[in-house]
């Protein structure tokens, strides 16, 4: 039995925080897990930056509503799910993910949540569990699934390295050079074929 574990942002959808940076005119919010491996540190900084600019959940959700999946991503997911179970393992938040998951055809997703004040201020982020992607992969393996993982950033490396096959998708040249054991792929057709060959 196999299950494919997919990162969401930069793999299936554009980066939410980059889109929000462009929409809000706050260039420093372009930082992602490609730039900062410590996700907790990155989120604390993002939340502080939102507060500094008087922005909250409503403003972020308004931008997310305008984001479409990467070209070919919904078709890739639909085609893959005809042959193998898939799950999105993301460090994003329930409050952000819903419209994107709908546009992807409602694949299952495991992610985190936000603590939000009654006025809509984002107060903090709540990680479901530490090392959430690795923990999910290990949990699937504990019930006799072999995992195939797809990601692009530092926060994906644990799940990629723990899986029977790990694919770097749309990854930076730096990420590819630092992780020669992982298979780099840059288009959905090639990724589909590589996953199918791994089953």
Descriptive notes:
The protein has 199 residues and is α/β, with parallel strands linked by helices. The chain has a domain at 2-13 and 70-113 and 128-198: Rossmann fold. 42% of the residues lie in helices and 21% in strands. It has 9 helices and 7 strands. It has helices at 16-24, 39-52, 57-64, 73-81, 94-103, 132-142, 157-162, 173-178, 188-198, and strands spanning 2-6, 85-93, 109-116, 122-126, 146-151, 165-169, 183-185. A 7-stranded mixed beta sheet has the order 4-3-2-1-5-6-7, with helices on both faces. Helix 3 (57-64) packs parallel to helix 5 (94-103) and helix 4 (73-81) packs parallel to helix 9. It is globular and about 50 Å long. It starts with a strand and ends with a helix. The mean pLDDT is 96.
